[in-house]
């Protein structure tokens, strides 16, 4: 017990060997707006510090000078009209002085037409991940779209089983890629409850409200990788849906877009090829960990009362068609979403196969695998 | 000592205030809607509009209208605009459509809710015909193309050249349907 | 004047209260009811504090060590609900009950039976709220602000709504009682401007409660209807709007936070004046300042919503209106400083807590002013910077003032002086604990750590560990407070009626402990 007490005190002290603890201030950020916002923040901060020093200085001095042992006879005054007027007018003037630049910056933030051109990205918050649709890039008849899921494995965040890496809780499978020096408009909405899209380095934060869109614009000046968070309580995994934006040169952006278009074509090819169970299992395991394990748990046992177990589940073991239907349609009125738009045929087949062959399900059930062609057939059957 | 029934003007008026404030909170609902319509708060737009020329002194300009779609919850519908964006002239009626496909073997009842950004433009987008005015039904595996006819009136604030019109599709009902024979 | 008089109306009351549990269940005596409220609030403070210990224990390190995020969100939600509706508000009502009749020279509150009901509704309400812990689905986990649509589909929401309705009814009845008492039962010659500032602060607070608690009732009713009766107040699918919820809630919510601080202002004015042995500087401007703060509190609610996508005009209005509130608040702080200046000051425990209130509440006010700057708020909103702000104004703000009030008036209530040495120890442990807990939260907030996060990225680890250590220190110190209060009820140096050298007011003209019935005949006021 005594050791634990020392640990309690020494542990925080030991943490001060890294430089991170010096992060005590807002980031300056990498956009013109974020720099202005930082300026406003520091300005109001210095104003309040100055007022604090004056007022507390006076207070502490009075407390010491007029302590009873030093001043037996208290004064009796209760008014001083000059002072009272001064200490009403001067703060008012200070506030007006602050309000002017603050209003100007706010106006700039709201001026979506300040610059021509640029790209539009629709941002949809889901429980618990972000979806991005590049409205200027059509793939077929729909915009280029992908989901961005947290990739930190449960082993790192549950009970400290495994050591945490540097980008703990701030890493995703698919970052948002944008070109620098280009106006980007984020059109933000939600699929379910209210989320909020926050990028500190851009000074962008807008709530994602189901049924409505909010717009936030930015123009990044410096290439780099920037990380943000969901900032509106949205349920259990509110802390587990980070945002990663990669700002790159125009050329790298074009290359990335091309890659994405190629990938869409590649999926069609991948769907056709012959898959072995091992290949499906490997892909499926990765997908399960990022998309399913949060609720259904790494051991497939679910959480009683909230998320059904997949290990030993009748549907998973014996009902291929039923399981495909659940993943394609979701379960209305529950947390189980439709994954039709979130997983392509290869991914869906892999993860279903993974669940059918794991945790002893293959032994107790029909042990059949699902291949991408099965998913394509299901989709075609339903057109 | 009984002084008779409790009568106090202040007490009565306070109780009245409590009751008023409770109903005031419900009054906030229509008040909020009116306020939104007038100011375009949150990009809400309502109801159909008639098309008629207000005066001959309008000047035309070009506005880019961009269309977005969002499917809410687990609605098993593929829903997207047939055109990603249209350049329109103010006060000229334009038409476009949204495509919706039911991906299940159940009958779906849907409601589609519009939202406009920037919010200030909400009062300047007038819809003459819109699928968002009523609930829509999709039979099993059915695809429908839903039209919108609208115009952007010339009173749109000068410095707004890009308007985003977004529709969010919500599932209201999912019904099992006995499908006798399904042809491929 | 139509004051309601107690059932047994004798000129000299020799039979005291009943004995045992029935005394407390059926009492209509303002002193008894004040005591009930204060003990209830203390229990809630310790329970809400226990939840806080759970939160800080989980946040001691990154990762989930002790609980899953569902449980964490429940602790966060219940901590807020219990502290606000079970801790701070009932404590202030308890002080109102004890002190208002004494300070205005009235024999009791205007409606003693309704007073009893107001109190006893609270344990019922909290019983209902806490019972969700034993149900499937568990306690509410949507934050004390219960935004739709997250809250609409949450399990057990009906119990939450029911509990809020009952608490609201209790507050409303209590406030009506306060206003009617103050307006009707002041001793002859006590004009409104001659009224003590604590009474003034409660008069204003009561009006705020009457205006906004019904709006909270409306909001939870609409939520219940959306959840169970198929309405769509807050559901976009049916033509509703989630943002409407936020407007209705914060229309209640902002005045609510002033409800939680105005009585603290009243208490502070009394204590600072007493221990400086000097009359309060600017008595009438203190009143006008409180009135302005209360009026302004109705037009700033959307500063809690700067990121929902309101039009520019609205954001500008709410920014300016919010900044304006700093002015009357500043006037109050300057007046307290001017009261101390050229006084003859001693630093007993109530004075220590009150001075800490002035300094630390002002720091909370500074972070509040920073939050008012809308473009900067885009960075602060929903981060720990906000958590730091409101904990500064609530803990070393409201809670310290309640502790100050308890130390100050405990000798009047019990007839015994509390142990001064232990009181000071409690103060210093609390002061140090509170600052170690909440000051680093400014840092992690600025660095980007969001609130209501069960887990966080590695760069926030150091300051979270520090904050948690501070929280354990602060939490443990409150057990010392419990001990001090319980001990004083039973033993201590006998207190005189005056108790404190510089104290002024009608409550210091009666015996310590105050007799069960006081001011059966109105006192004569001098001057």
The unreliable regions of chain C are 1-13
Protein chains sharing the most extensive interface: A-C, 104 and 96 residues
The major pleated sheet of chain B works out as:
5 strands, mixed
The CATH topology of the largest domain in chain B: Ctag/Cox11 (Pfam 04442)
Give the mean pLDDT of chain C: 95
Helix content of chain B: 10-25%
Distance between the termini of chain B: 91 Å
Strand content of chain C: under 5%
Number of domain modules of chain C: 1
- Average pLDDT reading of chain B: 82
Q: Major beta sheet of chain C, specifics? A: none
For the record, the CATH architecture of the largest domain in chain B stands as Sandwich
Order of helices and strands of chain B: HEEEEEEEEE
Shape descriptor of chain C reads globular
The largest sheet of chain B has its strands arranged as: 3-1-9-5-7
Structural class designation of chain C: mainly alpha
Secondary structure category of chain B: alpha+beta
Instruction: Measure the end-to-end span of chain C.
Output: 23 Å
* Top-tier CATH class of chain C: Mainly Alpha
Question: How would you briefly describe this protein structure?
Answer:
The complex is a heterotrimer of chains A (383), B (184) and C (527). Chain A has 383 residues and is an alpha+beta fold.
Give the helix/strand layout.
The complex is a heterotrimer of chains A (383), B (184) and C (527).
Chain A: H1 2-15, H2 32-65, H3 81-110, E1 119-126, E2 129-139, E3 142-148, H4 154-157, E4 176-179, E5 184-190, E6 195-199, E7 204-208, E8 214-218, E9 224-230, E10 243-248, H5 250-272, H6 277-296, H7 314-318, H8 320-329, H9 345-357, H10 361-364, H11 372-381
Chain B: H1 9-39, E1 62-71, E2 77-81, E3 85-89, E4 94-102, E5 106-117, E6 125-130, E7 136-138, E8 143-152, E9 162-176
Chain C: H1 21-26, H2 30-58, H3 69-104, H4 112-131, H5 157-184, H6 197-228, H7 242-259, H8 262-276, H9 283-296, H10 312-324, H11 326-340, H12 349-372, H13 374-380, H14 384-414, H15 420-446, H16 461-490
Helix pairs in contact in C: 2-3, 2-4, 2-16, 3-5, 3-14, 4-5, 5-6, 6-7, 6-8, 6-9, 8-11, 8-12, 8-14, 9-11, 12-14, 12-15, 14-15, 14-16, 15-16
Structure characterization notes:
The complex is a heterotrimer of chains A (about 375), B (about 180) and C (about 525). By secondary structure, chain A is of the alpha+beta class. In chain A, about 45% of the residues lie in helices and about 15% in strands. The radius of gyration of chain A is 28 Å and the shape is elongated. The mean pLDDT of chain A is about 90. Chain B has about 180 residues and is of the alpha+beta class. Helix content of chain B is about 15%, strand content about 40%. Chain B is flat. Chain C has a single domain (about 30-510), classed as Cytochrome c oxidase-like, subunit I domain (Cytochrome C Oxidase, Chain A, Up-down Bundle), CATH 1.20.210. Chain C has 16 helices and no strands. Chains in contact: A-B, A-C, B-C. The interface between A and B is large, with 41 and 40 residues.
């Amino acid at each position: 017990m005594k050791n634990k007490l020392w640990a309690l005190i020494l542990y925080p002290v030991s943490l001060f060997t890294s430089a991170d603890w010096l992060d005590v201030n807002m980031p300056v950020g990498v956009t013109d707006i974020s720099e202005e916002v930082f300026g406003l923040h520091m300005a109001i901060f210095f104003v309040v510090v100055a007022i604090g020093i004056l007022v507390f200085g006076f207070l502490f001095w009075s407390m010491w000078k007029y302590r009873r042992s030093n001043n037996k006879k208290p004064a009796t005054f209760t008014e001083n009209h000059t002072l009272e007027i001064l200490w009403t007018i001067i703060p008012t003037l200070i506030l007006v002085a602050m309000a002017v630049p603050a209003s100007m910056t706010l106006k700039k933030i709201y001026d979506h037409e300040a610059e021509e051109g640029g790209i539009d990205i629709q941002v949809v918050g889901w429980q618990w991940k972000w979806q991005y649709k590049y409205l200027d890039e059509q793939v077929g008849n729909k915009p280029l779209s992908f989901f961005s899921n947290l990739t930190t494995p449960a082993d790192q965040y549950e009970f400290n089983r495994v050591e945490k890496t540097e980008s703990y809780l701030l890493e995703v499978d698919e970052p948002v890629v944008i070109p620098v020096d280009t106006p980007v408009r984020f059109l933000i909405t939600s699929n379910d409850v209210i989320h909020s899209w926050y990028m500190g380095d851009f000074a962008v934060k807008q709530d994602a409200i189901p049924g409505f869109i909010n717009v936030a614009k930015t123009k990044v000046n410096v290439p780099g990788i920037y990380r943000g968070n969901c900032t509106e309580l949205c349920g259990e995994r509110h802390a587990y849906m980070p945002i990663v934006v990669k700002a790159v040169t125009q050329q790298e952006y074009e290359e990335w877009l091309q890659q994405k278009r190629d990938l869409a074509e590649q999926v069609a090819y991948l769907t056709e090829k012959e898959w072995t169970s091992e290949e499906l299992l490997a892909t499926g395991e990765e997908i399960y960990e990022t998309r399913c394990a949060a609720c259904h748990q790494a051991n497939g046992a679910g959480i009683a009362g909230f998320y059904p177990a997949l290990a030993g589940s009748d549907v998973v073991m014996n009902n291929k068609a039923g399981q495909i239907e659940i993943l394609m349609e979701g379960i209305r009125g529950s947390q189980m979403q439709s994954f039709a738009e979130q997983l392509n045929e290869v991914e869906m087949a892999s993860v279903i196969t993974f669940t059918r062959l794991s945790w002893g399900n293959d032994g107790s059930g029909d042990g059949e695998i699902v291949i991408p062609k099965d998913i394509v057939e299901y989709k075609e059957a339903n057109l | 000592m009984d002084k008779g029934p409790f009568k106090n003007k202040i007490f009565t008026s306070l109780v009245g205030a409590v009751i008023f404030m409770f109903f005031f909170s419900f009054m906030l609902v229509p008040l909020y809607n009116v306020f939104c319509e007038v100011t375009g708060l949150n990009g809400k737009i309502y109801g159909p509009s008639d098309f008629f020329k207000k005066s001959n002194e309008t000047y035309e300009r070009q506005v880019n209208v961009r269309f977005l779609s969002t499917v809410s919850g687990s609605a098993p519908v593929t829903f997207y605009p047939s055109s990603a964006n249209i350049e329109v002239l103010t006060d000229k009626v334009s038409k476009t459509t949204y495509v919706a496909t039911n991906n299940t073997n159940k009958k779906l009842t849907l409601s589609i809710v519009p939202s406009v950004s920037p919010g200030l433009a909400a009062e300047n987008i007038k819809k003459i015909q819109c699928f968002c005015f009523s609930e829509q039904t999709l039979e099993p595996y059915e695809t429908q193309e839903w039209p919108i006819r609208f115009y952007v009136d010339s009173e749109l604030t000068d410095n707004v050249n890009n308007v985003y019109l977004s529709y969010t599709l919500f599932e209201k009902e999912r019904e099992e349907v006995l499908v006798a024979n399904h042809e491929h | 004047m139509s004051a309601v008089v107690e059932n047994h109306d004798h000129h000299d009351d020799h039979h005291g209260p009943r004995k045992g549990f029935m005394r407390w269940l059926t009492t209509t005596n303002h002193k008894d009811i004040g005591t009930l409220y204060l003990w209830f609030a203390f229990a809630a403070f310790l329970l809400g504090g226990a939840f806080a210990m759970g939160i800080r224990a989980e946040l001691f390190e990154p990762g989930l060590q002790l609980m899953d995020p569902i449980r964490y969100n429940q602790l966060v939600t219940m901590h807020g609900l219990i502290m606000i509706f079970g801790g701070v508000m009932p404590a202030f009502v308890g002080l109102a009950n004890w002190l208002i009749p004494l300070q205005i020279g009235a024999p009791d509150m205007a409606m003693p039976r309704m007073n009893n009901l107001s109190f006893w509704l609270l344990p019922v309400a909290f019983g209902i709220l806490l019972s969700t812990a034993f149900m499937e689905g568990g306690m509410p986990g949507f934050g004390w602000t219960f935004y739709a649509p997250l809250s609409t589909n949450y399990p057990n929401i009906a119990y939450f709504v029911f509990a809020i309705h009952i608490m609201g009814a209790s507050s409303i009845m209590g406030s009506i009682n306060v206003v009617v008492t103050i307006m009707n039962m002041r001793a002859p010659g006590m004009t409104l401007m001659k009224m003590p500032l604590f009474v003034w602060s409660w008069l204003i607070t009561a009006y705020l409660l009457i205006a906004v608690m019904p709006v909270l009732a409306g909001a939870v009713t609409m939520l219940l209807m959306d959840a169970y009766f198929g309405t769509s107040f807050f559901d976009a699918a049916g033509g509703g709007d989630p943002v409407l919820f936020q407007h209705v809630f914060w229309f209640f919510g902002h005045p609510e936070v002033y409800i939680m601080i105005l009585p603290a202002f009243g208490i502070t004015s009394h204590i600072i004046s007493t221990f400086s042995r000097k009359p309060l500087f600017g008595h009438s401007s203190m009143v006008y300042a409180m009135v302005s703060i209360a009026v302004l509190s109705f037009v700033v609610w959307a500063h809690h919503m700067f990121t929902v996508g309101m039009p520019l005009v609205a954001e500008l209005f709410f920014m300016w209106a919010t900044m304006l509130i700093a002015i009357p608040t500043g006037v109050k702080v300057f007046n307290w400083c001017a009261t101390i200046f050229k006084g003859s000051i001693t630093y007993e425990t109530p004075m220590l807590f009150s001075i800490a209130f002035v300094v630390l509440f002002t720091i909370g006010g500074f972070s509040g002013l920073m939050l008012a700057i809308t473009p900067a708020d885009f960075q602060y909103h929903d981060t720990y910077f906000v958590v730091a702000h409101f904990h500064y104004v609530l803990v070393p703000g409201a809670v310290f003032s309640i502790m100050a009030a308890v130390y100050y008036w405990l000798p009047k209530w019990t007839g015994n002086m509390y142990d001064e040495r232990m009181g000071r120890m409690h103060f210093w442990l609390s002061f140090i604990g509170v600052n170690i807990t909440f000051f680093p939260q400014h840092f992690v907030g600025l660095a980007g750590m969001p609130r209501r996060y069960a887990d966080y990225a590695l760069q926030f680890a150091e300051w979270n560990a520090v904050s948690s250590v501070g929280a354990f220190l602060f939490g443990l110190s409150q057990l010392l407070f419990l001990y001090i209060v319980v001990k004083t009820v039973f033993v201590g140096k006998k207190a005189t009626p005056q108790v404190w050298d510089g104290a002024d007011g009608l409550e210091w003209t009666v015996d310590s402990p105050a007799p069960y019935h006081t001011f059966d005949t109105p006192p004569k006021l001098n001057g």
